[in-house]
Amino acid sequence: MSAFTAFVDTLKPWRKSSYSGPDDGNECVEIATTPTFTAVRDTKAPAGGTLTFPAEAFDAFLDGLLDRH
Question: Are 43 and 20 in contact (CB under 8 A)?
Answer without folding.
Answer: yes
